[in-house]
Amino acid sequence: MTVPRQVSHWVGNATLHNRANSVLVNTDPRTGEPTSAVALGGAVDVDAAVASARLAQRGWASRPPVDRGRMLAAIGVAIRERRDEFVELECAETGKLDGEGRTSIETAADYFEYYAGIVRAHFGETIDLGSGEHAFTRNEPWGVVGMITPWNGPLSQAARGIAPALAVGNTVVIKPSEFTPSTTVLLARLASTLGLPPGVLNVVTGEGGDVGSRLVAHPDVRMIAFTGSVASGRVVARAAGDRLVPVTLELGGKSPNIVFADADMERAATGAATVCVAAGQQCAALSRLLVEASIYEPFLAAVAERVAARVPGAGLGPLTTRAQHEKVIGYFAAAREDGARLVTGGRAAEEGALARGRYVHPTVYADVTPQMRIFREEIFGPVLAVSRFDGEDEAVALANDSDFGLVAAVWTSDSARALRVAGRLEAGQVIVNGGAAGIETPFGGYKCSGIGREKGFAALSTYTQLKTTVVSLAP
Ligand code: NAD
After folding, report:
1. 320 vs 26, 178, 179, 355, CA distance in Å?
2. CB 269 within 8 A of CB 301
3. How far apart are CA 352 and CA 358, in angstroms?
4. Which of 275, 398, 440, 474 has the fewest CB atoms within 10 Å of its CB?
5. Distance separating alpha carbons of residues 226 and 158, to the nearest angstrom
6. How much is the pLDDT for 1?
7. What CA–CA distance (Å, rounded) separates 183 from 185?
């Protein structure tokens, strides 16, 4: 049996001793072997981290953007230099395939390099009130930002928030998921070796009910950036509402993927099978496939073939947590009870060595109707729910028949239709014919998928508040 790595809080550029002496031992989703023993922090650790962040904030904010940018750029370079170490840790905790882990780590480095540059182009404006006044706006940081992240993309989601938040002069206390904190702690340690001042980036490990709720309630935390489930997002939003502090919520999805009969079948089928990336544990997964009636059966067969080709343990990773594994298996039962037609998969993968891990077979259900749970609820696994539609109006109605609104996709060779449909979809991001979003493109949800925007220039606004100054020019 391997001995788990100890993971504890990082506050003021030093490890904060695990006072409570209680740990969560995580196991590798691929093998069941222990990976990390994570300190379960409490209010006292959060308070220490917030105090450290508060102390550092004014000094950090007073530096010119170019200086803060240089520091972020150095972090990006350092992540790339230590890429293998990050990938190994990330894959051991999440179960990602090596290629998926590499993409996540590269993306994290990209965030630091991108915000290092664009913060220098984040200007206020002057407002013309006539020759007797001079009015201008300035983007100011909130102060200490409390950040909470989930387990499915630990480093890239941390970097998505940390990079823009630090770029504009905030300091950060982040609580990563208790299941996958190692790469976030490594990032903070690495940043301190590069000269990031103590207190600018702090990590407190532990559970949502203890560390997360104290972070959200702390009077010196002036802004909250939450990524996770709708249920936890509601709790966080309520707490933020009580304190009247701004909160961004990046929550779940049940994103529709609409395929019209005139689409490029090969590309659309390959695109539909991307639901299996990261074993379906992506907020942006296109987990509802809506197919025009005239091509329904042949297209379904083409997609099912591609999905089934993802062999568990080779082309398909495991579910990260035990609870997630059980949840996905629970949805197989729900689909059966609700009368969906099983095309492939629909069961745990327990053959040979796979039994030690948390694998399921990649799964496609057909003839899924809006009443079924697998149409409405986020499964967060390699499970595709396929429904049939007749014409544009029905496609849009089915796509929008959801409490979620994170992403939507359209496949058609008719560009006018693509734009018409895109305009009618209730989603924060619409992908046409497989377009690939980047870190430059704003991201966030409509409806229950969230509030606020991350990524792109939009994140610089998210992490700042606007101050207007008006000066009388009277002699
Ligand atoms: P989760 O809500 O259970 O946990 C997310 C984080 O919140 C964890 O760090 C957890 O410890 C913490 N937390 C839980 N309860 C809390 C509370 N009461 N107060 C403060 N913090 C609390 O979600 P999860 O299972 O870790 O992640 C999966 C979910 O995240 C999915 O719904 C997925 O779609 C969503 N997600 C969204 C995005 C996005 O950008 N929209 C990205 C990744 C994941």
Report:
1. 10, 12, 8, 14
2. no
3. 13
4. 474
5. 10
6. 60
7. 5
Q: Which residues lie across from 322 on neighbouring strands?
A: none
Give whole-number Cα distances, 256 to 5, 98, 252, 294, 334, in Å. 40, 28, 13, 19, 20
How many CB atoms neighbour CB 445 within 10 A?
Answer: 28
Q: Tell me if 444 CB under 6 Å of ligand 1.
A: no
The β-bridge relationship of strands 126-127 and 133-141 is antiparallel
Nearest CA to ligand 1 atom 41: 250
Rounded (to 5) percent helix, strand, coil in the chain? 45, 20, 35
Quick one: CA dihedral 213, 215, 219, 225, positive or negative?
A: negative
Please state, as a whole number, how many other Cβ atoms lie within 10 Å of the Cβ of residue 266. Answer: 10
Q: What is the DSSP letter of 360?
A: B
The confidence score (pLDDT) of residue 129 equals 98
For residue 319, name the pLDDT band (cuts at 50, 70, 90): very high
CA separation for the pair 231, 247 (Å, rounded): 15
How does pLDDT run across 22-58, given as a tens digit for each residue? 999 999 999 999 999 999 999 999 999 999 999 999 9
pLDDT number for residue 17: 86
Distance 215 CA to ligand 1 centre (A): 14
- CB of residue 164 inside a 6 A radius of ligand 1: no
Q: From CA 331, how far away is CA 365, in angstroms rounded?
A: 11
Contact 380 CB / ligand 1 (< 6 Å): yes
CA gap 206, 258 in Å, rounded: 40
- 453 Cβ below 6 A of ligand 1: no
Q: Compute the distance between CA of residue 224 and CA of residue 352 in angstroms, rounded to an integer.
A: 45
CA angle 233, 220, 167 (to 5 degrees): 80
**DSSP category for residue 196:** P
Residue with the smallest CA separation from ligand 1 atom 15 is 208
